[in-house]
UniProtKB/TrEMBL annotation:
Residues 5-80 form the RNA 2-O ribose methyltransferase substrate binding domain. It comes from Paenibacillus barcinonensis. GO terms for cellular component: cytosol. The gene is rlmB. This is 23S rRNA (Guanosine(2251)-2'-O)-methyltransferase RlmB. Keywords: Methyltransferase, Transferase.
Length: 248
């Protein structure tokens, strides 16, 4: 049977709250009681098996992840469809606010982007099936549990998905350090919008860049002319939120 691991207090707590199917939870013998007690109580309420184990077993199960003595075995992450993301906007009577990640490969970046996407009210994130980070235990941990709430769709062809979003009236905005237009106060974020965030090293691919309706950049004042992908994405997401709140 396929299974996935969710590690860390926040990630496991949000997985329980969101209704994710969890088969078993492991608690390290040395875990701090104040961290694990609420998780144990909720798991018992849901009838989920809890097992107390040596911390080393958890270290081996999720190597390299700060699990805080809590690891859950869950059903595989359920990816959304693009239509689900559009429907999420419709159901709230809001203009779509979507992120398109063009080959973001670092799971920590994906997790950070999902966390900010949840905080700023984005309706979903779209990633390509190839050459892209997928939702793993590392992503879930970095997202502080936001991976349980922000729909993520995986698509075979990001360029075709952009065409489909345009047919739905979505304005596609690419972030690019060579763009002429600044991200702040340009008025493109109040309507239906999809933000394109490029690869950590190469930025957006040529075809994706050409399909954008407009390119924007973050102003740079220092010696280094680029930001980490998840930080840049966060700044732009908050500009979308600020623009929409200012409009009322």
């Amino acid at each position: 049977m396929e299974e996935e691991w969710i590690a860390g207090k926040h990630s496991v707590t949000e997985a329980l709250r969101s209704g994710r199917t969890i088969n078993k939870i492991w608690i390290a013998d040395t875990a701090q009681k104040h961290l694990t007690q609420p998780i144990i109580a909720e798991a018992k309420k849901q009838g989920i098996v809890i097992q107390h184990v040596d911390k080393r077993k958890l270290d081996q199960t999720v190597p390299g992840i700060q699990h805080q003595g809590v690891v859950a075995q869950a059903a595989p992450y359920a990816y959304a469809e693009v239509e689900d993301i559009l429907e999420a906007a419709r159901s709230k009577n809001e203009h779509p606010f979507i992120l398109l990640l063009d080959e973001i490969e670092d799971p920590h970046n994906l997790g950070s982007i999902l966390r900010t996407a949840d905080c700023t009210g984005a309706h979903g994130v779209i990633v390509p099936k190839r050459r892209s980070a997928s939702v793993t235990a590392t992503v879930s941990k970095t997202s502080a549990g936001a991976a349980e709430y922000v729909p993520v769709a995986r698509v075979s062809n990001l360029a075709q998905t952009i065409d489909r979003l345009k047919e739905e009236g979505v304005w596609v905005v690419g972030t690019d350090v060579t763009a002429r237009e600044a991200v702040f106060g340009n008025g493109v974020f109040t309507g239906p919008v999809a933000l394109v965030i490029g690869n950590e090293n190469k930025g957006m691919g040529r075809l994706i860049r050409e399909k954008c309706d407009v390119l924007v950049k973050l102003p740079m004042q220092g010696q280094i002319n680029s930001l980490n992908a998840s930080v840049a994405a966060g700044v732009v997401m908050y500009e979308v939120l600020r623009s929409r709140q200012a409009q009322g």
